[in-house]
Amino acid sequence: MNLPGAQPTRQHHAGDAPTGRSLDPHRQRYAQRAAGMRASEVRALFAVASRPEVVSLAGGMPNLAALPLDALAEDVARLVAAEGQTVLQYGSAQGLPALREQICEVMSLEGISAHPDDVVVTVGSQMALDMVTRVFCDPGDVVLAEAPSYVGALSTFSAYQAEVVHVGMDDEGLVPEALRQVLGALSAQGRRVKFLYTIPNFHNPAGVTLAERRRAEVLEICARHDVLVVEDNPYGLLGFGDQTHPALRSTEPDNVVYLGSFSKTFASGLRVGWALAPHAVREKLVLAAESATLCPPAFTQAVVSRFLARHDWRGQVKQFRAAYRERRDAMVSALEQHLPAGCRWTRPDGGFYVWLTVPEGVDTRAMLPRAVTERVAYVPGAAFYADGLGSRQMRLSYCYPTPERIQEGVRRLAAVLEGELDVLRTFGGRGSPGRHPGLAGPHSPSPDTA
Amino acid sequence: MNLPGAQPTRQHHAGDAPTGRSLDPHRQRYAQRAAGMRASEVRALFAVASRPEVVSLAGGMPNLAALPLDALAEDVARLVAAEGQTVLQYGSAQGLPALREQICEVMSLEGISAHPDDVVVTVGSQMALDMVTRVFCDPGDVVLAEAPSYVGALSTFSAYQAEVVHVGMDDEGLVPEALRQVLGALSAQGRRVKFLYTIPNFHNPAGVTLAERRRAEVLEICARHDVLVVEDNPYGLLGFGDQTHPALRSTEPDNVVYLGSFSKTFASGLRVGWALAPHAVREKLVLAAESATLCPPAFTQAVVSRFLARHDWRGQVKQFRAAYRERRDAMVSALEQHLPAGCRWTRPDGGFYVWLTVPEGVDTRAMLPRAVTERVAYVPGAAFYADGLGSRQMRLSYCYPTPERIQEGVRRLAAVLEGELDVLRTFGGRGSPGRHPGLAGPHSPSPDTA
After folding, report:
1. Which one of A321, A331, B51, B278 has the fewest beta carbons within 10 angstroms of its own beta carbon?
2. Which residue in the set A39, A136, A297 is minimally distant from B271, CB to CB?
3. CA A46 – CA B24 distance, rounded (Å)
């Protein structure tokens, strides 16, 4: 468990001044927050990932192969022909009422009972998170996030100059005792904690799930410390078992803002997500969203609404699950087969990601260019921490490539790692990674998610 | 000309605490900016406008009747069937390269020569304005805006706790001398001005256009005071003459951020807008946009791109112009025919709006409920000022209703005004509006746009 709470990140005060100073005539005009706006590694890797010879285990692009495109094409055509005057027009800032009702139906699969009036449709759940941060965070406020956490959330928090304090996880997700300690340390420092940002199911990037027996405890700790819970759940319906975990929101409607998305269960290119919030918070979110985009696209909302109404969307989700499960199996078996001793990884029960820890001495960020030369890409672990940790970790995505490509990618990655370890063995380094003390098997907790 | 610069608005420090205190358990948790998040009158009026018996002269909804829905339906179907795997997938944060090239073509009609790499596609130009404000404005920074200005821009500036200082207009748009005085007064106060937000063409809500001979002067004044110019131009191609005004950006590429939109020239429900910015600023805007929505919807961008590529979009814009010109004529002739003495209004050469000034003693906000009872709606002028002015003004939109409905709406509005004036004459008030000194004809400058 790590406790960087003592030194909250200030990445938004660093920034790209060195280059900016010489090149950018507008530099003196930017807001303070702009100093923290730097290209994320995930984004930089989109370019790499697009080169066909590279096996990208980097991006989180969903696999859309199972979508019934011809049926969708007909649907969308009917929508434009029959309802074009409405769906091509401005809509309400809160989102289409019919879609908000359907969203409540979708959430009921996770035990959530909600009223459509408390749902706000957003441009992907990324915008929902941006709006929540806009409504709650002043510069210097503390946001708690798992260690590691979603890179896109860290950049949103940075944009609002919130300070991220990480809370440790193990293979059963967020560690309640770690949460208690962090909150205790912060209140001793008199710091203002606005909310806990958590991804309970099939975590991005850690690939772990919050154990159900921990959920009530996490909610209780946050309630006692008067800290709001922001539950980000884009993968909740993509579990590889048949059972779906009950959302935190299902047992605590008054202190949880729930974020959902159709990006992984239908189509990410429509950018339709949502927030479910306590009523008073919902009112603020709608006004914040109105000042951000006026209203979400009526057209993409109508496409999603029609899909939910006319297609067997539960069957569609089952197909997605099967495709991702097959890919998860391909990746895990390839990791077991090819990776050198001293590597450990999580074994996800759903979602898109495996979190890999490499032997001591290997720096995943420094190794990335060599990996790309060997035609395999990943996201270095440091991208998922606001405090510079994660140098021995990487995120591997199995969502997009075929099982064969995944296996080939892992083979290439293993070869790159072997090369790194040879160099370490030859020229030394901090101990022989092969015999690093305390290493356990692939199914044990990884120290950086623990 | 008004100079509220001496008392910049602090509406974001006021807010809805009174009700919030009693009802909202989360009230103590909100960011300071949330105090300024209050329902805008424009939004509140969407509900009213939707009732069929009410003639809404309030909303700015474009008239989509001229769109070729059947052809669009076929197009969109082909798009999904042939390119679904791409257009339903995540895209780049900056927007589709093909669309950014087409956007440069569109902007060339206003004399702009730009590179697609300096264009950022956003979820409507509202999001572009939000991103510009995010990149440039710290709390307390000053943003200059015309008096009156677009209500949606004022709420965005408030969300970032920027302080709006208004600059006077007359029937030829922003008054350069007023700009000089405001900038002088503010620099004397040592205030930091980040940018001038201006709508040069067919202003929302004032309905006036910045005279071409003033454009170089406005740019020169801003350059001399090291103030960026944010040029918001959603209506530029909707002029009722044949000639299109050269954009401010066309003569000053280095100190202007240009905002464009397809909401008025194609379809607002797709929410596709853009920003064209100096290169270094563009880089910041892309990173800001990535933290806000990850990427704009690939699907809606592809729909716009296909429309521009396969349809006679210039011909489509001509049809829109004709429809809006016919409605402008209907409104102006109805105003001349029905409105009581002492009313003055602007006569727009393009766009959607007429700015009406009523006789002294009439408060347009107080009158609105009576107007709605008489089945006509408008937006009270106060919504377009950050400093509480505008009580004698209202915005009338002619974009959406039929010419007959517009005439009926103006008839109803005239009756409501007559009723107000009767009350004033009977029970007194500040002077007889009919013989108010200094009133001029309908074509003279209105004091609140001058």
Report:
1. B51
2. A297
3. 43
Q: List CB contacts of B318: < 8 A, sequence separation 6 or more.
A: none
CA angle A97, A99, A101 (to 5 degrees): 70
Q: pTM for this one?
A: 0.91
- Domains of chain B (ranges; CATH) run 41-65+315-425 (3.90.1150.10), 89-310 (3.40.640.10)
User: Do the Cβ atoms of B136 and A37 come within 8 Å?
Assistant: no
State the Cα–Cα distance between residues A280 and B205, nearest whole angstrom.
31
How confident is the model over A45-51, as a mean pLDDT? 66
- Answer yes or no: do B69 and A85 touch at CB < 8 A: yes
DSSP string, A111-128: T----GGGEEEEEHHHHH
Q: Residue A208 phi/psi, 5° resolution?
A: -105, 165
Identity of residue B448: D
Closest CA–CA distance from residue A417 to any residue of chain B (Å): 30
What ipTM does this complex have? Answer: 0.90
Between CA B400 and CA B59 the distance in angstroms is 8
DSSP summary character for residue A359: P
CB-count burial class (<10 Å; 0-12, 13-18, 19+) for B177: exposed
What are the tens digits of pLDDT across the range A384-420?
999 989 999 999 999 999 999 999 999 999 999 999 9
Residue contact B288–A37, C-beta within 8 A: yes
**DSSP SS3 for B88:** coil
Number of CB atoms found within 10 A of residue B373's CB:
10
Closest CA to B76 of A108, A243, A76, A226: A76
In DSSP terms, B344 is beta-bridged to B357
Length of chain B as a residue count? 450
Count of beta carbons in the 10 Å neighbourhood of residue B263 = 24
Give the chain B residue nearest A161 (alpha carbons): B138
Cβ of B291 within 8 Å of Cβ of A37? The answer is yes
Torsion angle (degrees, nearest 10) of CA A41, A296, A203, A281: 120
Residue with tokens 């007889």: B432
Structure tokens belonging to residue A426? 């030859």
Helix (H) or strand (E) holding B245: none
Q: Please give the torsion angle defined by the CA atoms of residues B418, B423, B428 and B430, in that order, rounded to the nearest 10 degrees.
A: -50
Residue owning tokens 């990850």: B294
**How far is it, in rounded angstroms, from Cα A447 to Cα A15?**
29
Question: What element of type H or E holds B290?
Answer: helix B279-293
Sheet holding A379-380, edge to edge: A344-345, A353-357, A393-397, A379-380
Q: Which two tokens stand for residue A254?
A: 């008054």
Q: Quick: pLDDT tens for A293-316.
A: 999 999 999 999 999 999 999 999
